[in-house]
Design brief:
alpha+beta, 6 helices
C-alpha cells in the first residue's frame, strides 16, 4: 500500500492568480503614463481596490475613451528561502477614467487578461477562469502558517523530509517550507549551488481553513510511521 500518491495535485493557473490577487500586500498600477505603488492593501487584496468585469460591448467610440491600465503583483515566499520570488502576475484592462489612488471604494476595471509567470513559464487566465475559481482557503493565512512552522516548530521539518522522494542530496544545506496551498506543502531543498522544490500532497484538498492543521498533522503522522528516513514508501 502506498503512503503517498505518485503525483501531487497542484493549483491551476487560475487558482494561483486568484490567491495572489487576494493575498498580496502591495501592487503597482500603471495607467495614463503614471506608475503608482499601492501598499498596505489592508487584507482586501488587489480586488478590494479593483472590481473586474467583462469588457465593454457598446459603440466603438465610447470604448475608445477608456484608459489602459496594468496591475503588477509579485508573489514572494514568506519564509527566508533562497530565491524568494515565486511568481509574477500582470492583469491588464481598461478604466473609464485615469486611475486615482485617492478614489473612495473600488475602481471598476474592464478585464483584458491575466498572465502568471513563474518557473514553469507563462500562463494566461481569462475572467471566466477567475470567476469559476474558488479562493484557496489557505491563501490568506499561508504566510502566517509557514512562518509559524519555521519559527516555532522547526524540529518538524526534518520529519517531513522523510516523505521526500527521491531522497534529498547528501550535500543539502537546509530545507524550508516555501509554499502551502489547499493541495499540500512545498519544501525547498537547498544545496550549495542549486535547489529543488518538493511537494508533499495532502490526502484530500482543503476546503476550509480549519482543515489545514489536521492535514499537516496527517503528513507528520505518515512521516513518523516510517521506521527510518531511508525507508522506501511502498
Amino acid at each position: 500500500m502506498r503512503l503517498l500518491p505518485a503525483r501531487a495535485a497542484t493549483p491551476t493557473a487560475a487558482e494561483r492568480v486568484r490567491s495572489i490577487l487576494a493575498a498580496a500586500h502591495s501592487m503597482s498600477v500603471v495607467s495614463d503614463g503614471l506608475h503608482t505603488e499601492v501598499r498596505r492593501l489592508d487584507g482586501m487584496g488587489a480586488m478590494g481596490h479593483f472590481h473586474l468585469h467583462a469588457p465593454f460591448e457598446g459603440p466603438g467610440d465610447q470604448a475608445a475613451t477608456r484608459v489602459p491600465v496594468r496591475l503588477e503583483l509579485t508573489d514572494i515566499a514568506p519564509t527566508p528561502v533562497r530565491d524568494r520570488l515565486r511568481a509574477r502576475v500582470t492583469v491588464t484592462g481598461l478604466l473609464a477614467a485615469p486611475y486615482s489612488a485617492e478614489a473612495a471604494g473600488s475602481t471598476c476595471m474592464e478585464f483584458g487578461q491575466a498572465v502568471l509567470e513563474d518557473a514553469q513559464g507563462c500562463a494566461y487566465v481569462t475572467l471566466h477562469d477567475l470567476e469559476q475559481t474558488e479562493l484557496d482557503p489557505i491563501a490568506i493565512s499561508e504566510a502566517g502558517m509557514l512562518n509559524h512552522l519555521v519559527d516555532d516548530h522547526s524540529e518538524l521539518i526534518p520529519l517531513l523530509l522523510r516523505l521526500v522522494r527521491p531522497r534529498p542530496d547528501r550535500g543539502m544545506l537546509r530545507a524550508l517550507p516555501v509554499a502551502m496551498d489547499r493541495y499540500g506543502v512545498t519544501l525547498r531543498l537547498e544545496c550549495p549551488r542549486t535547489h529543488r522544490d518538493v511537494r508533499l500532497p495532502f490526502t484530500t484538498p482543503v476546503t476550509d481553513i480549519d482543515q489545514a492543521g489536521p492535514r499537516i498533522h496527517a503528513l507528520l503522522a505518515t512521516a513518523r510511521r516510517l521506521s527510518h528516513p531511508n525507508q522506501l514508501l511502498t
